[in-house]
Fold this sequence. Notes:
Blueprint: H1 2-15, E1 22-28, H2 38-50, E2 55-60, H3 63-71, E3 75-78, H4 82-90, E4 91-96, H5 100-103, E5 114-117, H6 134-142, E6 144-147, H7 150-160, E7 167-169, H8 177-180, H9 185-192, E8 198-202, H10 216-229, E9 231-235, E10 255-257, H11 261-264, E11 276-279, H12 283-288, E12 295-298, H13 302-308, H14 315-318, E13 324-325, H15 328-340, H16 345-355, H17 363-374
Parallel strand pairs: 1-2, 1-4, 2-3, 4-5, 5-6, 6-7, 8-9, 8-11, 9-10, 11-12, 12-13
Amino acid sequence: xxxxxxxxxxxxxxxxxxxxxxxxxxxxxxxxxxxxxxxxxxxxxxxxxxxxxxxxxxxxxxxxxxxxxxxxxxxxxxxxxxxxxxxxxxxxxxxxxxxxxxxxxxxxxxxxxxxxxxxxxxxxxxxxxxxxxxxxxxxxxxxxxxxxxxxxxxxxxxxxxxxxxxxxxxxxxxxxxxxxxxxxxxxxxxxxxxxxxxxxxxxxxxxxxxxxxxxxxxxxxxxxxxxxxxxxxxxxxxxxxxxxxxxxxxxxxxxxxxxxxxxxxxxxxxxxxxxxxxxxxxxxxxxxxxxxxxxxxxxxxxxxxxxxxxxxxxxxxxxxxxxxxxxxxxxxxxxxxxxxxxxxxxxxxxxxxxxxxxxxxxxxxxxxxxxxxxxxxxx
Length: 379
């Protein structure tokens, strides 16, 4: 079956040039077509609102997402539908966060359609893909890459081998939220039901794709301390890790497990309302720099992660965003101290200015302008 599908995909790719490009048909997708989130979401909504001459079409694998976007007045279709296939074959531009073949459709031909790589963040995880397949190198070289700063171009250039001339510094659309402050009404309601003096967010990356178990006693102790201190922590595990924490949820009073994707799936719709972030190696920590609020790096497995998991880029340790903590006891102590007095502000500002060239909330506008220029300007 897979070989038959691959043959169909390749055949349509070869004849895709028979399908003329539809001017100003721009298609969007992310995270293997399974989510409505990330940079692609925020750019999609911005262009839909600001330029009605562009036909913005979200392509998804999910019928739930298609129904939700349709109810909201957006254009959306399933990637396997005739409309989705024709859109992929004829789009003038495509915007994704990882791989256009998975995020949007395998029928997008990057030699004909202008493909814009929004990517999914400034992560400290090592992206030294030394054994890149030549086809991946060729694919990466076809994209226009959107970056947040010159320093970030260096990181992605080193990882992907894409020519630096293919990068455009615009900032990430999702980081506009730190200026424009959207409100996630569902999250707002949940937090209102748990009044606290301070709200913090713990959002770690996965470990070995969720194969490591959480320590029950530690989380119950954290919950007790935060209850005593009037702190509510939202714990948003990576989706690979979610199964490891659900059995504890009913025992928490001051920890909320962010499990419902419909509510918590898009962290950027609510991240700005938190007073502090507990992070680790994930890109969310580098985005949270834009909030200008404290960050604590819980890196209990730092040496192991460097050697046995993804590995880390040098800048992670050379330019810390906040205190490194190796136990939950240390982490809670730093959380309490930074909520009392933010002693890391100046260090974070240095990092923010290095990795984010803009702080005006106009990243989506810059991406849109760059795409218009590359696609041939206003017509």
